[in-house]
Batch of 2 targets.
Target 1
Amino acid sequence: MAYRSIFLILFLIYLFKNPCYSETDTLHQGQELKDWDELISSNKVFSLKLFSIGSMVSLYLGVFYCKNEIRNSQSHSYQTQASDEFSNNEFSNNAVWVANRNNPIPDIYGKLIIDFNGKLSILSGGGTVLDLFSPTRLVARNATVTLLNTGNLVLRELHPNGSVMQDLWQSFDHPTDTLLPGMKLGINLKTGHNWSLTAWRNDELPAKGLFTLDLIGTGQMVVLRQGNIHWISGTWKNSRFENTNLLVSGPDVRLHYVSNETEQSFTYLTRTYDSYPALRMHQDGQLKASSLNLNIFCLPNNDPPGCAEDIFKKSKCRKGNFTDSSIIGSGERCYSYLDEYIYDDSYNFYDCLRICWSNCSCVAFATRRKRVGCKTFSKMVYDPNCTDRADESRPFYTITNHEG
Ligand SMILES: *[C@@H]1O[C@H](CO)[C@@H](O)[C@H](O)[C@H]1NC(C)=O
Ligand SMILES: *[C@@H]1O[C@H](CO)[C@@H](O)[C@H](O)[C@H]1NC(C)=O
Ligand SMILES: *[C@@H]1O[C@H](CO)[C@@H](O)[C@H](O)[C@H]1NC(C)=O
Ligand SMILES: *[C@@H]1O[C@H](CO)[C@@H](O)[C@H](O)[C@H]1NC(C)=O
Ligand SMILES: *[C@@H]1O[C@H](CO)[C@@H](O)[C@H](O)[C@H]1NC(C)=O
Ligand SMILES: *[C@@H]1O[C@H](CO)[C@@H](O)[C@H](O)[C@H]1NC(C)=O
Ligand SMILES: *[C@@H]1O[C@H](CO)[C@@H](O)[C@H](O)[C@H]1NC(C)=O
């Protein structure tokens, strides 16, 4: 615990110091990116840094949108009003790329290095956590890693005179849950490498979650839930995916769809980064976007192609269709929930909602805030003596329209 407190204090010091200024967008061989070091793209839109989530000690390496005051000003003054506005935007606050989503650094001694063979690695106090790029032959290479103005982190091999010989690796080939302007969704037909987005497990766990966004061979966007189709768009036609609200290019956004011998891909470009453009695959199966008009939530009233699962319609014991208002969040105080059934870490909010909705004996479910996994309950007992006792640590969701 003392360990965590120290970390928290250090983090607070960090917040007050606000060092989102950096002289460089490039890490050279033999240098380390550690502690509160950052690479800032030369347009000051993106930063690469180590971060932790909530009260967890584990560190991740990620790319973020820089705050407005860094973007708009070359001076080192700190403007608090801009940061309030900033904190309201989920696309500006969350990492747009996580290098080590499945391999958290277990201590506070994380660092990014390039060794003299051109190997790009994330280390902890105890050794290698993850090699992002390993050269196939061990030859001495002059390499640097640069955070480009697009938010793409690129490992490059240099000629002795400093000019670029070739790109060895880039973060845009390994998306997390977010498609930035210029990133591709689809497949490289030459290498077989595909670009897809996979949601976080939950708000505090960047590890691969349940939902994946792919572009498939027929030119349709597909959201897969553990490999099964959850939602599917129409095909690309007349500059849009049919049966979606994804509109044709406007003055500030351009959509590109490519289907040629080397690749099949979808990408988009924006005129500016002012509105923190991003398309994100959410942990609950929603696609959310800023700058792009594509927000998808799988509800039964979507026309096909669209939501492929009609589980929310089928249940005989629920009145009507599923809507958001069928769930009462945060638990009704003064009820106790009994006859619990526990689901392990491979289940999240969305799974428990489905399970509970389609099982007539289920009256409520609960998720765990810090971890995944959940519980369903088949009995709800009113406690006449209760005084307000909200259990904020474990949100309950009661399903209404229950007749059985
Ligand atoms: C740097 O070296 C490479 C390979 O030797 C050469 O092709 C390139 O033109 C050189 N660039 C400059 C700016 O001298
Ligand atoms: C690597 O490139 C830099 C220029 O960017 C040059 O100064 C340095 O000598 C090179 N190192 C090797 C080992 O070629
Ligand atoms: C992309 O790769 C994943 C895993 O390698 C695979 O399951 C999926 O089918 C691929 N998608 C396409 C469109 O090839
Ligand atoms: C296919 O499209 C990509 C992206 O526009 C382009 O880089 C590539 O050269 C194209 N390939 C062919 C064979 O035209
Ligand atoms: C449920 O959804 C179906 C299909 O969208 C619709 O036909 C039906 O009227 C809805 N029922 C209710 C009670 O809203
Ligand atoms: C429905 O929930 C009850 C209580 O948790 C459980 O005993 C039962 O097995 C569930 N039924 C199905 C079909 O999963
Ligand atoms: C509620 O309070 C009454 C009187 O204080 C007590 O007799 C009763 O056992 C309590 N009921 C429960 C469920 O705790």
Target 2
Amino acid sequence: MTRVKTGSSPRALPAVFFDRDGVINISPGPGRYVESPEEFHLIPEFPQVLRIVLTLGYEAVVVTNQRGIALGRMSIESLNAIHGKMKDLLAREGLAFRDIQTCLSGDDSDSRRKPNPGMLLEAARKFGLDLPRSWMIGDSETDIEAGQRAGCRTIRICTEESETKATVRVRNLAELTEYVQTRFLPAEDFRNPKGE
Ligand SMILES: [Mg+2]
């Protein structure tokens, strides 16, 4: 789909913000970190989710806490290599993120570290995003809190037993795919309601 630029005052596009571990790639588990490209495994359904989101005209932005560097568990070079692998795997399917926002700090008071909304707000400023029409998708309640504090709608991937304040709950990526396919409105409808 070709993205049509509107005239002199284009309306801001909505985005989908994706948490990384447990949404894009298989989660290494609580308290564990993906420390090398070899440990990074895409969740098989994720490319389809990203394809739908991009086809609908949303910006797609990764927002990921990676305090493994602050904890000395991995180097910045390893993190760059991991994200290089992520981009390569998606590029093979013709897919790409608009941006990857990473918080390396282990300090919970850091404004960019989820559940603080700093990474989302920074991306919104950078790309002029429409936050109330955007979505944050994550597998932790900290993702949901960050999304809500940025003024976005939220989807949590979690079991039925988990407590969540998310707008929507799905149990897995298959259900997420179904939801974005059937319930997300095209971004162009927001920006250009008359189809001009
Ligand atoms: Mg996660």
